[in-house]
Amino acid sequence: xxxxxxxxxxxxxxxxxxxxxxxxxxxxxxxxxxxxxxxxxxxxxxxxxxxxxxxxxxxxxxxxxxxxxxxxxxxxxxxxxxxxxxxxxxxxxxxxxxxxxxxxxxxxxxxxxxxxxxxxxxxxxxxxxxxxxxxxxxxxxxxxxxxxxxxxxxxxxxxxxxxxxxxxxxxxxxxxxxxxxxxxxxxxxxxxxxxxxxxxxxxxxxxxxxxxxxxxxxxxxxxxxxxxxxxxxxxxxxxxxxxxxxxxxxxxxxxxxxxxxxxxxxxxxxxxxxxxx
Amino acid sequence: xxxxxxxxxxxxxxxxxxxxxxxxxxxxxxxxxxxxxxxxxxxxxxxxxxxxxxxxxxxxxxxxxxxxxxxxxxxxxxxxxxxxxxxxxxxxxxxxxxxxxxxxxxxxxxxxxxxxxxxxxxxxxxxxxxxxxxxxxxxxxxxxxxxxxxxxxxxxxxxxxxxxxxxxxxxxxxxxxxxxxxxxxxxxxxxxxxxxxxxxxxxxxxxxxxxxxxxxxxxxxxxxxxxxxxxxxxxxxxxxxxxxxxxxxxxxxxxxxxxxxxxxxxxxxxxxxxxxxxxxxxxxxxxxxxxxxxxxxxxxxxxxxxxxxxxxxxxxxxxxxxxxxxxxxxxxxxxxxxxxxxxxxxxxxxxxxxxxxxxxxxxxxxxxxxxxxxxxxxxxxxxxxxxxxxxxxxxxxxxxxxxxxxxxxxxxxxxxxxxxxxxxxxxxxxxxxxxxxxxxxxxxxxxxxxxxxxxxxxxxxxxxxxxxxxxxxxxxxxxxxxxxxxxxxxxxxxxxxxxxxxxxxxxxxxxxxxxxxxxxxxxxxxxxxxxxxxxxxxxxxxxxxxxxxxxxxxxxxxxxxxxxxxxxxxxxxxxxxxxxxxxxxxxxxxxxxxxxxxxxxxxxxxxxxxxxxxxxxxxxxxxxxxxxxxxxxxxxxxxxxxxxxxxxxxxxxxxxxxxxxxxxxxxxxxxxxxxxxxxxxxxxxxxxxxxxxxxxxxxxxxxxxxxxxxxxxxxxxxxxxxxxxxxxxxxxxxxxxxxxxxxxxxxxxxxxxxxxxxxxxxxxxxxxxxxxxxxxxxxxxxxxxxxxxxxxxxxxxxxxxxxxxxxxxxxxxxxxxxxxxxxxxxxxxxxxxxxxxxxxxxxxxxxxxxxxxxxxxxxxxxxxxxxxxxxxxxxx
Lengths: 277, 876
Known about the structure:
By secondary structure, chain A is α+β, with helices and mostly antiparallel strands.
């Protein structure tokens, strides 16, 4: 039984064929999942739509206001790109997604569409105010990333929609950003918790702060309470308090218990602030 | 039709577009140098270059490789940089079993293309996606960094004590080495084991007439439907009969052509399940019997009772520890094939114990032993996990019944679910010393979760009491270790047979006693160390080769320097830890002989018939060096006939750190015997010089013509005395000794551990090939790091290599190895074993360092960050 597999070369053809098919770009999430299912004879092959031959989706383009990252841009491309310091957190995440082989193949948009709670790209993209551009045969729409991600393995993608690009507003030129990932080994590790921050300090006072935590809730989250606590203050990690993380809903799993995750998230956040201040 | 450009050659392939590129390379183009370890991008064994960029071939659908330039390991030798990398890997001893080597080479090629002289950090980043379970990575890093500047030196001839490159190394670097999944006849049927998804279940199997493939069950077994390590314990079924005792227990197997078998969904199987409650080892002590033979679910108990009156003690330390299931994590999953030849059966595949496999296959088929031939493939790592049979009996049954060759390749989840594990141990221990710090007593109670079947559980229960007080003088010891059955995976043999778990308890108690007695922790160990002439707690007097004190003395300057260099920062505290170990070489109080054979034909062909399976540790090289030294000809003169029950004598299994010592001594005897035969013919004295050039043997420069093949056979069985009910006897002919230091930093807020350096001093008697010994030490340390910090197998939850974590290239710090040579007169040229000793002290040294840094005692293992943090909070 041969798996239904399409690899269109135009967006129109891709969108026409999309309903009922699983979209494949870098393949680094879909093929591993198949291995696990096959081992217990639970494999039910879904028709695949390979978008890797679609034109015009593999670039990182800067406009006066935005960075546009196409659906086929890989972590390695992003890691190597010359970008302003406000993108440093995203680039640090890019260097920690899987190993070099995965970074060479996996796409940012795939990471988002896969919608794992531990997706490394989400926290830095949330701090960047990322929006995701979706296309259906008849329309295009743009959603803020936080609205696109609905839950564990769940997104706002309609059955006839394809994610085309990420739109990242350019942060202030003096903004600084960072990303910290915590796992139980140094490479190839699924995060226990991760933190991303983008801050802008002027004359020692925080003018702009965006903070996000991943792997501590079904979808990585911005922390509005923590951000508000920092605004207008000197950058001091002690301003970040446990109650600022109350909205997180970490789980107990094989990697760590929830209480530890919550504690680690705050610790990572404070450290980020310390290094960025 | 898809066109691929592989190593500069265009190939047309007809395969489904979703087919993994790794499968296309291996199955369609016969380029089996690209290995498959997980099909999930977790291990990197299948790393290739796709347009110059490293990629896991298992994650590339064929459609995406269309017209792309692909480089595989087979294409390296033709490129100057590739050839240089291969030479550097060989020279540095960077390949052991060789299964990860192609992936490592390819990842390194991507790096060197842009960075000819990389730093260690750049190398680690580039190779971070390839797992190695043998080497500990350090020699790989060195090899990559030196690849473009390798000095052209001629290796030494290979006398005992010289580091020569491994004799079987080249094939591991070119992709030519044939592992279990790399060969099988084209017409082979495909066998797919069906396993229980439940830890505990009853099941019934109905008619399989609706299936497009044959379903083999217990009813198809011609002989005995069971196997097991011990002659009197054959408790594990080839195909379980109505009752499954762990998730992964094999109940049946599909047999047919591969595509048909692989398309059969679980729902089509005619198996009805009744799930039963899982039974932990703790609960098993009061639960109904899992096997009628062991009504209390206690498989085996080992005792040691030594010393009657307990000397007066001044200080006491006590503790409780719990370790986890640990998976061997060999990068090569189980794989092989079998073929019937008339009334005989041949089984090919990866194994550590071909003669044990032969015995099991013969019994399962109900045929004589000499009708079974086991032909081991290269073995992509074992560490104890390939001592038990896995695929061998069922492949043999399938091939026997059908008359067709039959093959199987386990997937990573299947390998993880079905194979044996390291025993989780629950340990309670206490120890005392007097006011001067001399040990007075040690008490040990260990409950080892031995899982669903016996496997090597009795060996663990036997070994632990002998070793649990460590290599120290302890006047009074009471020890008990029990192997307790459960519905967990069978716990079997894993590098150290339960001793690494015990060493964690023992060494933690010493640290506490040293502190209470006001002694330096190294000096405390030295004060109590066993020395030549001491009698152990089993009543064995060690006359020779007790090198522990020499190890500790060698470490002393490093100990003081590392301690002086501890620097604390705001979030991190530094610590230095120490731990020692001893390890009995060979089987415990049981015969474990080896026989080696050399022949010299009239045509001048010198052949070494060596049945010791080299699973990467280097026995093929070491045993040849020993035989060569004894014979008086260099290793390069030898032709090798390696491990095949049809061609070589029984060398015993590759386990218990025994091949260098036991087979080495046999190889020495074989070399001496052939030398004696030559000298008799030449009527030459014992110091005669031999040479073998172009098939002409010369003795003292004079050619010696042979009219018949000369032979030298040597055997050795280390002398032991079985242990009595109190654990008294001579369990081992000799022991390895070691002490290791670990320097690390503990993140006080996150509980993460940052290893800085390991210094390892190992008494190996004599280092036959120092670079290979170092490789064993570094690889053992890496596994010890995994045991200490991250490895925890949870059935059904960590059945892949992204949830089950083993150390990556960034998790093994700098390692300094100090080889101590306390000559062992029974060993070949004084040598003892090293395989297991390397692992034993690492975890306790790490925990000692964590305690040094923070005061926290780690009692729940592995020391995942949250557990470390909890221990720190309890510690204060």
